[in-house]
What we know:
By secondary structure, the protein is mainly α. It has 3 domains: about 1-20 and about 55-205, no CATH class; about 280-385; about 385-445, no CATH class. The chain is built from 17 helices and 5 strands. The strands form 2 sheets. It has a 3-stranded mixed β-sheet. Strands 4-5 form a two-stranded antiparallel sheet. The protein starts with a strand and ends in an 8-residue tail after the last helix. The model is unreliable at about 1-5, about 20-55 and about 360-365 (pLDDT under 50). Keywords: Metal-binding, Zinc, Zinc-finger. This is MYND-type domain-containing protein. Pfam families: zf-MYND. InterPro entries: TPR-like_helical_dom_sf (IPR011990), Znf_MYND (IPR002893).
Amino acid sequence: xxxxxxxxxxxxxxxxxxxxxxxxxxxxxxxxxxxxxxxxxxxxxxxxxxxxxxxxxxxxxxxxxxxxxxxxxxxxxxxxxxxxxxxxxxxxxxxxxxxxxxxxxxxxxxxxxxxxxxxxxxxxxxxxxxxxxxxxxxxxxxxxxxxxxxxxxxxxxxxxxxxxxxxxxxxxxxxxxxxxxxxxxxxxxxxxxxxxxxxxxxxxxxxxxxxxxxxxxxxxxxxxxxxxxxxxxxxxxxxxxxxxxxxxxxxxxxxxxxxxxxxxxxxxxxxxxxxxxxxxxxxxxxxxxxxxxxxxxxxxxxxxxxxxxxxxxxxxxxxxxxxxxxxxxxxxxxxxxxxxxxxxxxxxxxxxxxxxxxxxxxxxxxxxxxxxxxxxxxxxxxxxxxxxxxxxxxxxxxxxxxxxxxxxxxxxxxxxxxxxxxxxxxxxxxxxxxxxxxxxxxxxxx
Length: 446
């Protein structure tokens, strides 16, 4: 048994936090309540089916469309493998009585350990295949009591922060599965800041899972719009799992959002070079590359056969090729999933750029797409001109933190500009101070 210095959340404290947050949003019945109290009821099978539909993953559309067997996409395989493991574990879990008394734990400890192990395996394989419910939360309590009572092989100890102010830290026993269980609960409950803390502990403790845990922590950072930390985790995850090519797709998207053109191009190219042809993110990657290629096209080529003009023509051709490949990948997506890919900002921008047409002096639309693409290129360059002003220079967040909880009817508050140079922006005053002390004070010019 090994000792570990960092503090870690336990299942008990995590569940208590979850209960407190639930109470904070609990509805209070009163005389001004407008819904029908007489029809309040326990969840029915119909309610469960409705909830499942709301939580459906894109891959589930393959089963609905009858095309699951028509693709060999490894992510599809992982998802359905995780979903099957999860479903079988839930069947066994429903046979274990609820309760946390020692006699019950003693009688069913083998089943509790086995079911917990399979649920954590499913979560690590694909977190989107695992739907949190109350029975799983009660299993977490049972497994925690088992670990604290029996101190099984493979346990370690860590310090736990007490909720009482001024109280000393306490020691707790944990296993790998108990820590992953906490991460699963926090991740599903969207308690991303707490989840990041526990993931940081887990990354230090369980090096064999480092790549996967870094991915999960990156998704938490992304949810909190901390793009800088998200990219750092994903880049490190790639060094741990270089075969996980889908990380390149995610990195490409994040760098695109913060207008880091060259980094976005690099990761999208790495992705499309080896991505499975049925990858659901392939159309988006090609659309993004078509836009980014236009942005990278040289400007000001006046002579038709100059090196600048030849390079410009080559880049424009690459952009057109990427756009055509995106449309081909779109068709394949619809064949498999039965629906078209969503019209996100990247796809919308690509269609606007490649459907532009310019008119000749006589007013007739030109059949040559080059002038229109060059015009679109200049427009896009202006939009991407100053990445420092489109997101926080310290954390990468794209909007002011003051917009959190702000009414949609009110105009959003802009990022805070550096008053001296007006070349960088920040989401908050603390980020501005941090970036000034670490970097910007040596770069800023009036």
